[in-house]
Design a protein that fits this description.
Blueprint: E1 7-15, H1 19-30, E2 36-39, E3 50-53, H2 55-64, H3 67-71, E4 80-84, E5 90-93, E6 102-105, H4 106-115, E7 122-124, E8 128-133, E9 140-144, E10 149-157, H5 164-169, E11 175-187, E12 198-203, E13 206-212, E14 217-225, H6 237-247, H7 253-260, E15 268-274, H8 277-282, E16 286-287, E17 290-292, H9 295-298, H10 307-327, H11 331-334, H12 338-373, H13 379-391
Parallel strand pairs: 1-2, 1-10, 2-7, 4-12, 10-17
Antiparallel strand pairs: 3-6, 4-5, 8-9, 9-10, 11-14, 11-15, 12-13, 13-14, 16-17
Helix pairs in contact: 1-4, 1-10, 2-10, 10-12, 12-13
The chain binds flavin-adenine dinucleotide.
Flavin-adenine dinucleotide binds next to helix 1, strand 2, strand 3, strand 11 and strand 15.
Length: about 400
Amino acid sequence: MDAVREEEEHEVVIVGGGIGGLATALALHRKGLRSVVYERSESLRAEGSAITILRNGWRALDQLGVGDVLRDKAILVQGGQGIWVDEGNQQQPIPFPGGEARCLKRSDLIKALADALPPETVRFGYKVVAVTMDPENMFPTLTLNNGSSIRAKVLIGCDGSNSVVADFLGIKPTRLFALCSVRGLTSYPNGHVFSPELVRIKRDRVMVGRIPVDNNLVYWFVSVPLSWLDRKFPDDPELIRKLTTKITEGFPSDAVEMIEGSDLDSLSITHLRYHAPWEMLVGRFRRGPITVAGDAMHAMGPFLGQGGSAALEDAVVLARNLGRKIASLSPYERGKEIMTDKIGQAFDQYVEERRMRMVRLATQAYLTGLILGSPPMSITKFIAVIIMAILFRDRNEHAKFDCGNL
Ligand SMILES: Cc1cc2nc3c(=O)[nH]c(=O)nc-3n(C[C@H](O)[C@H](O)[C@H](O)COP(=O)(O)OP(=O)(O)OC[C@H]3O[C@@H](n4cnc5c(N)ncnc54)[C@H](O)[C@@H]3O)c2cc1C
């Protein structure tokens, strides 16, 4: 933990140093705006082992100036196929967006974003426990876990699906899907034999997905109905591996061997969460000079592989609007309350630009989660399939989005 004075003051404070927080700090930095990120972990945190970035995410990474560094870290993914074990290992192509898609180690992504920031932008080991706002000048104050306070002119909450900033804004808490996901990496020092595609293998109500990161490393995930597990998830990686091996009994041998041979320190198990899409449609995402980005605004489950890319898009759109507004302020205005109004206007534009994008992504992800999590032949599943067919004729439309220039 770096030393923090009793009460510090900063222009722009970001809570959370995950993908969203680091990308937002970097986007602001590229617009000439300095920010400070408060992250509760003691070092860069990359839980979840790997992440698929589709072409909309690569566009955002290019705007942030780290696309090319990251392209060297992962091979191109060229399509997808589904295998249905219950139907005699029947194979079918599955919708997979065209254009650039790669699966990155999360640590590579986080590191590339952090390395591009000015030194000491991220303060590790500080958990924000409360947010308040001065009723006179609307400036936010954050209380940290060590009892000290931070005053800011601008506050951006990138603190994930259990966000203290979202809570301050009155955003409804995330809900739980009836699904859990186990994620891990398996190393093949002599190279693996898998094709460069996303493969989903389904048996009963369990799905195993795999996608190569490079020629020696494969990312995999297993989604399983919550009702199949004990409520208490194991923390011990050895137990996670044992549990996952048991759940995937009867799957093709290469999938079982991949899980048995996984790197223990890459394993994690997560109960999947989401913000209800209908609440996003009307939600208030800005109060005074305070807003949110990433999962704090739109947690959506992993089914489209878009939550992280959407956080990168948020960063670009937020910094574009904030940069434009701050550039238009006179030096006199920058120090005064009038700034709070202008920041508020910039954040309203940001929310306006993002709202329908989030609602569409979250709706498609929500319907996919319902379809995967509901028992076969259930009425819920039937209705979700019909709504999906009506609203999302092109299942890959989501990856064609362009967040524009920084
Ligand atoms: C199983 C699974 C698979 C996924 N796969 C993909 C994928 O393939 N592609 C994709 O694009 N997305 C994927 N996602 C979604 C993606 O992981 C998230 O959307 C993304 O990580 C959101 O980033 P974030 O920075 O908003 O939040 P987070 O990654 O949750 O980061 C929040 C950060 O804030 C910190 N923090 C939290 N509270 C505080 C506090 N009070 N004070 C200080 N710091 C705090 C945390 O320590 C953390 O570092 C997946 C998600 C899951 C669950």
